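Next comes a single protein record:
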Amino acid sequence: MFTNGIVRVPCPRIKDGITSSNLGKPDYTKALEQHSKYVEALQQLGLEVKILDKDDKYPDSTFIEDVALCTPLCVVLANPGAESRRGEIDSMRQVFEEYYNTIEKISQPGTLEAGDVMIVDNHFYIGVSNRTNIEGADQLISILEKHKMTGSKVPLGKMLHLKSGVSYLENNNMLVCGEFTTTKEFTRFNRIKIDEDESYAANSLWINGRVLVPAGYPKTREKIEKAGYETIILDVSEFRKVDGGLSCLSLRF
């Protein structure tokens, strides 16, 4: 169960964020409204949410999940593969000193973005992607093992991040789409396969027994509810325009 969340308010420069989509530029006013409703949902689910001010230096800074991995025993500051995001880490150590006694760090030449890390109990699946390299994944595995946890690498082909295409819903249930429908590392789970035309919704988010699902993906919502979960639907259209999803917008621990 999660008790804390950390979010960062989007900055006006979100329109300059890294993107591979052709969906146009985010509407900043709408993004603020959607972010506020996201925070309300986290609070509704029992999280005490720390809201960090917007950071105009970094267009992608609202996607705070990428900058750190929160584990039960330590927090690991990331080293983003996107160079334009590396400065986002600088202010985070002080934030985490309020919550953690142990703060670890991924260092060059290793790169790691926590959007590539999926937690299943005390094991961490680490996507090796354009943003997270083998050195960064190996550094994380060493840190985890030092704290009596485990990790393993999962190669990515097409996805931006591991959690762009796979989400663990607890109780052995996992959303999968695209290349992850046949990934051998996930065959032991009850895999809920997401249709290709709703692949964005594979990044749905389990929090304390309920699942946040992006608006506009009714087939995915039905599959999640059929698996026994109550859902909360949130519109994150403006964040999708800059390759962001539900998990990207918060740190949960």
